[in-house]
Write a structure and sequence with these properties.
By secondary structure, this protein is α/β, with parallel strands linked by helices. The chain has helices at about 15-25, 40, 55-60, 75-85, 100-110, 125-135, 170-190, 235-240, 295-310, 320-340; strands spanning about 5-10, 30-35, 50, 65-70, 90, 115-120, 145-150, 190-200, 210-215, 220-230, 255-260, 265, 270-275, 285-290, 340-345. It has two domains: about 5-125 and about 300-315, 3-Layer(aba) Sandwich (Rossmann fold), CATH 3.40.50.720; about 125-295, Dihydrodipicolinate Reductase, domain 2 (2-Layer Sandwich). Helices cover about 30% and strands about 25% of the residues. The strands form two sheets. A nine-stranded mixed beta sheet has the order 14-13-12-11-7-10-9-8-15. Strands 3-2-1-4-5-6 form a six-stranded parallel beta sheet, with helices on both faces. The protein binds nicotinamide-adenine-dinucleotide (NAD).
């Protein structure tokens, strides 16, 4: 089978991960990179690969099957519209765009075409995530009552040197919690309302140091989530899964799903039930570990992208679905600003 031809637009931190994943995958082949920075290009082995300064030059010269967009979020929209106009399928890094007006422009540009837009919420590709979704949706915990989660770590001081990283769009809610929100929507179902508070006692920047979120899901389950980019702790997705080579893993769980008939420690998938049918607190609890291996989710995402382009698989995440994760994340920030619960329009 001929590998699917992919171009990458934006080869910084995450774009380089995509380029390397493409270069080590049999399903896809790198045909071009669009990147204006020589420093970014110098980090990659691009011998024989066409390089362009801008997306327009790419499409004047080549017609890839698919395009990966990994430019800063404020620069997602333009190359996305150019790629769709050129007839290319898209994998856009998360968040899909900075706001819903922009993501609607992408959805409108897609209408009437046979093209697909995936969004880089790569956690959906972990086996543990798909297993947890299945366990909860099959009712193996009984009725889902609650979920609690943490994403707490300390980012290095140099991270905050650029001024834009001190502002709220680069804060941990928009940058990091959007992953957790998308994960929770995927596993538990959609979120109907959020209330959140933040504090700024470490940095004193516009962006939050800590946020606490309360959420209500459509199925009436309640959730709490604490996040901080200023708190060394072993409880964050990157620690649990060891997915980021720069962040040494701890293997500690960072979510608990709690049901009327049992609970699930996640992502290590320890399933807790009572030894008694009625589950009273007098009976000892018992646990069983569900088998799970962490694979490279970036690679799995690319394999899926290739299968979607070939028409062999349906998208695991669409532009509409990713826009909903963006809307919930924006509602968290809106709640912080207004000091009240925000009800989301039903999806
Ligand atoms: N999936 C994840 O886990 C994850 C993690 C971090 C960041 N991200 C997302 O990835 C995107 C990129 O983040 P990053 O940390 O890699 O940023 P970055 O600043 O490290 O890299 C962006 C690159 O895009 C280039 N660029 C800027 N404008 C461009 C344009 N118009 N055309 C082509 N290239 C252009 C820059 O020169 C730079 O090399 C953001 O949307 C971010 O939210 C995703």
């Amino acid at each position: 089978m001929k590998p699917v031809q992919l171009a990458v637009i934006g080869a910084g931190n995450v774009g380089q991960r995509h380029v390397r994943a493409i270069q080590t995958s049999a399903d896809v082949e790198l045909c071009a990179v669009v990147e204006p920075s020589i420093d970014s290009l110098a980090c990659l082995d691009l011998n024989g690969i066409a390089c362009f300064d801008d997306a327009a030059s790419l499409f004047e010269n080549l017609k890839p099957d698919g395009v990966v967009i990994a430019t800063p979020t404020v620069h997602h929209l333009q190359p996305a519209l150019q790629s769709l106009a050129a007839g290319c399928h898209l994998l856009i890094e998360k968040p899909i765009t900075t706001d819903l007006d922009e993501s609607n422009q992408i959805i409108e540009a897609l209408a009437g075409t046979s093209l697909h837009v995936l969004v880089g919420h790569h956690r959906r590709y972990y086996q543990a995530v798909q297993q947890a979704r299945q366990i909860i949706q099959e009712g193996r915990l009984g009725k889902l009552l609650a979920v609690s989660g943490q994403w707490c770590l300390k980012k290095h001081n140099e991270y905050y040197e650029p001024d834009w990283r001190k502002q709220w769009p680069a804060g941990p809610v928009m940058t990091n919690a959007i992953h957790d929100i998308d994960l929770l929507r995927f596993i538990c179902g959609d979120i109907q309302s959020v209330y959140a508070e933040s504090s700024h006692q470490v940095h004193g920047f516009e962006k939050e140091d800590v946020a606490a979120i309360i959420m209500r899901f459509n199925n009436e389950a309640l959730g709490t989530f604490i996040l901080s980019d200023q708190a060394p702790s072993p409880w964050a997705w990157e620690y649990a899964t060891d997915e980021n080579p720069a962040v040494p893993g701890t293997g500690e769980n960072c979510f608990r799903f709690i049901g009327s008939h049992g609970s699930l420690d996640f992502p290590n998938l320890t399933h807790w039930t009572s030894t008694l049918e009625n589950g009273d607190w007098f009976a000892p609890m018992q646990s069983s570990k569900i088998n799970n291996e962490y694979h490279n989710a970036f690679q799995a995402q690319l394999t899926h992208f290739a299968a979607v382009i070939r028409g062999d698989e349906k998208p695991l995440i669409s532009a509409e679905d990713a826009s909903r994760s963006l809307a919930v994340t924006q509602a968290v920030l809106e709640s912080i600003r207004q000091g009240k619960r925000i009800d989301l329009v039903a999806s």
